[in-house]
TrEMBL record:
Keywords assigned: Glycosidase, Hydrolase
GO cellular component, one term: cytosol
Example GO molecular function: beta-glucosidase activity
Stretch forming the signal peptide: none
The protein's name: 6-phospho-beta-glucosidase
GO biological process: carbohydrate catabolic process
Length: 479
């Protein structure tokens, strides 16, 4: 068994880290527009309003809003088959609850999709990628409030109708399971906890509303455009028991329950025993209205998309921890780590694919994967990022093994940040993932000029060979 001939090779971005143009084209403010920049040692701060003189990376991103034709031409040069991006909800409905959509915003994405399709690149669109309109947070408490379901459904119906025939692949909420895994689910759900608030109850209620909203979006997508496919998107934290002690196996299962809590509802259309056990274990409660069960049952997804960067360990005696994408975990002594402390584990990606496919038996999509690193621009302008090529080559081989040896059904692969973009976690630019370098620093200075890294030419070769040619000539510049 080989990769599909129509395998979707590409890359992934999010509007809040990439697009910019935050006050242009009638766009309203989103939650990221008040998320101050930071770095690995200085956590990002969330403000209620924009503070004069502070730096907010989302305001400019890397200016895709004005440079989308140039950027898409570079993606096409690499041979991209698809491009995962998000629509900024507040560009379509500036306050989230507007009676009519913003035509300028709709036209902007028409232009972007048309440009992609001109080169034969399929748009893969995330409906909500940390993009909640700020007005919905201020006026309704965001996803604490059931009214959000209707606002989201209105938004989804508008974009499904508008882009029917242009967008064949949709995802609902980015890394939705981080609501339960994060202490403060601001990015995922627009929620900052209030004094004395029962946090687990708020998380479970917000999760329920978002899963109902997702199910309605799936049903509407299928009704409006029967040819389209729509999936969920999870962060997948492959987790190993720290030892062979039985308790470590139980703790590992419990650690994965936050992921399967959402996967079970999205795919099976109901709260399973895993979900009920998680609710009881946490002591959390939420309310479900009549009709919700039917909505969940009728709105199951077509595929599972997920992000995978690193793995972790779990056990009763784990004392050393390491960083990771939104969720920290126990440090595995058998793995190397990146400059930001994330553990590199290609086999963990193969495990993730097998675990998800064994459990759900529907197509999978690797929506994010990559290495954040500091890149050095040489005197001649070249960037020799062999470390990135090595990371990606090993992960591509791992998912090929999952397909070819384990018979997993995999639709596509979109490594994170094919063009350097702002880090969601730290707000930095120096944590770079891209095949394309962007001249911008952590304070927002730079020309924003684009240049090709060595990995650009390598990934072009990988795509052209449908993953068969992963060879890298170390240290040499490719042209």
């Amino acid at each position: 068994m080989k990769l599909r001939k129509d395998f979707l090779w590409g890359g992934a971005t999010a509007a809040n880290q990439f697009e910019g143009g935050y006050l242009e084209g009638g766009r309203g403010l989103s939650i990221n527009d008040v998320h101050k920049g930071g770095n690995v040692s200085t956590p990002r701060v969330i403000h209620e309003t924009i503070h004069e003189g502070d730096y907010y990376p989302s305001h400019e991103g890397v200016d895709f809003y004005h440079r989308y034709k140039e950027d898409i031409a570079l993606l096409a040069e690499m041979g991209f088959k698809c491009f995962r991006m998000s629509i900024a909800w507040s560009r379509i409905f500036p306050n989230g609850d507007n009676p009519e959509p913003n035509e300028e915003g709709l036209q902007f994405y028409d232009n972007v999709f048309d440009e992609l399709l001109k080169y034969g690149i399929e748009p893969v669109v995330t409906l909500s990628h940390y993009e909640t309109p700020l007005a919905l947070v201020k006026n309704y408490g965001s996803w604490r409030n059931r009214k959000m379901i209707q606002f989201f459904q209105n938004y989804c119906r508008v974009v499904f109708e508008r882009y029917k025939g242009k967008v064949k692949y949709w995802m609902t909420f980015n890394e939705i399971n981080c609501i339960l895994g994060n202490e403060n689910p601001y990015l995922q759900a627009g929620i900052n906890f209030k004094e004395g608030e029962n946090r687990i109850d708020v998380k479970l209620q917000a999760s329920h509303y978002m899963m109902v909203a997702s199910a309605l979006a799936v049903a509407d997508c299928h009704r409006i455009d029967p040819e389209a496919k729509i999936g969920c998107m999870l962060l997948y934290p492959t987790t190993y028991p720290a030892t062979c002690a039985p308790i470590d196996q139980v703790m590992t299962r419990d650690a994965m329950a936050m992921t399967y809590y959402f996967g079970d509802v999205f795919v099976r259309g109901r709260y399973t025993n895993t979900c009920t056990a998680y609710q009881e274990k946490t002591g959390g409660h939420f309310t479900m209205e009549p009709g919700d069960e039917k909505i969940l049952k009728e709105g199951t997804v077509d595929y599972i998309a997920f992000s995978y960067y690193s793995s972790k360990i779990e056990g009763a005696r784990v004392t050393e921890f390491t960083g990771g994408n939104m969720m920290r975990g126990g440090k595995n002594p058998y793995l190397e780590t990146s400059d930001w402390g994330w553990q590199t584990d290609p086999i963990g990606l193969r495990m993730a694919l097998n675990q998800l496919y064994d459990r759900y038996q529907i197509p999978l999509f690797i929506a994010e994967n990559g290495l954040g690193a500091v890149d050095q621009v040489e005197a001649d302008g070249s960037i020799i990022d062999d470390y990135r090529i090595d990371y990606l080559a090993r992960h591509i081989q791992a998912f090929k093994d999952a397909v070819e040896k384990d018979h997993v059904d995999l639709m596509g692969y979109t490594p994170w940040g094919p063009i350097d973009i702002v880090s969601a976690g730290t707000g930095e630019m120096k944590k770079r993932y891209g095949f394309i370098y962007v001249d911008k620093d952590d304070e927002g200075n730079g020309t924003l000029n684009r240049s090709r890294k060595k990995s650009f030419y390598w990934y072009k070769k990988v795509i052209a060979s449908n993953g068969d040619d992963l060879e890298n000539k170390k240290g040499e510049r490719e042209e």
